[in-house]
């Protein structure tokens, strides 16, 4: 891999980590469109473009997810009983979606991703938050939520924060605990998603060298190394910068990147 691609992945990791620390979101929303463009420029087969971007993005989230869980746990913000209850369904939903994604065409995945990011952007621009209206459900209700959160997260390569924080807030969980618990839930999503995209992409032809299934490991390593260090910088600046304004700017960026991604997959 030439030096310009190395620098591109390092720069992507820096931006992803910083935005994740600053706003608590940003992983897949930024990575998937940019990875799609980078893979297209590197000559990856159009058939696998979005699959490779999704799998590589999921694997890149693992390290930053671990760092985030450790930070939130140090502040006692993680509700571990909730994590243990929802994790089995999260694993099933996430892995099942990677199997489904392997069967779906690139253009469909790109459209689904873009629509979901449009929904996330609208939430951020309008500051839409669910009104607390009930308590956490029992095992059945929690499992259904876990299946949906894991399933959708794997199809758009996110750690589930935009979904799990909303679910926990709706269930009257204090926002600090909702964010911390969501970070812990993101860990099994990232792990199951990574493994799923590796297994379900096994044997795919014309993928880049040093890939395992739909995960391109050189990109994973470069993105993870930098994002691990830039995430704490973003977290510190979150208390000094106008986060509400930055969220609106970030939402506009999500829309732009999603549209750019659609252009890439429909013209490559």
From TrEMBL:
InterPro entries per UniProt: TM_pro_TauE-like (IPR002781)
Record's protein name: Probable membrane transporter protein
Gene Ontology CC terms: plasma membrane
Keywords tagged on the record: Cell membrane, Membrane, Transmembrane, Transmembrane helix
Domain of life: Bacteria
Subcellular location per the Swiss-Prot or TrEMBL entry: Cell membrane; Membrane
Membrane topology: Multi-pass membrane protein
Keyword Transmembrane: yes
């Amino acid at each position: 891999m030439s030096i310009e691609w190395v620098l591109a992945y390092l720069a992507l990791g820096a931006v992803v980590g910083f935005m994740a620390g600053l706003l608590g979101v940003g992983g897949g929303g930024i990575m998937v469109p940019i990875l799609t463009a980078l893979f297209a420029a590197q000559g990856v087969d159009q058939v696998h473009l979005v699959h490779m971007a999704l799998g590589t993005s999921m694997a890149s989230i693992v390290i930053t997810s671990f760092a985030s869980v450790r930070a939130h746990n140090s502040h006692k913000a993680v509700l571990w009983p909730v994590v243990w209850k929802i994790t089995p369904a999260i694993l099933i939903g996430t892995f099942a979606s990677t199997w489904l994604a392997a069967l779906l065409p690139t253009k469909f995945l790109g459209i689904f991703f873009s629509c979901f990011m449009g929904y996330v952007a609208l939430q951020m621009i309008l500051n839409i938050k669910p009104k607390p209206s009930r308590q956490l459900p029992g095992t059945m209700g929690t499992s259904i939520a876990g299946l949906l959160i894991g399933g959708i997260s794997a199809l758009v390569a996110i750690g589930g924060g935009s979904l799990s924080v909303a679910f926990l807030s709706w269930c009257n969980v204090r926002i600090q605990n909702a964010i911390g618990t969501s970070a812990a839930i993101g860990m099994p999503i990232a792990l199951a998603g990574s493994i799923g995209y590796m297994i379900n992409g096994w044997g795919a032809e014309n993928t880049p060298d040093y890939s395992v299934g739909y995960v391109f490991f050189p990109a994973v390593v470069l993105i993870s190394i930098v994002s691990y260090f830039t995430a704490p910088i973003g977290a510190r600046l979150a208390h000094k910068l106008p986060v509400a304004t930055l969220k609106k700017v970030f939402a506009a960026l999500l829309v732009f990147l999603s549209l750019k991604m659609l252009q890439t997959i429909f013209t490559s």
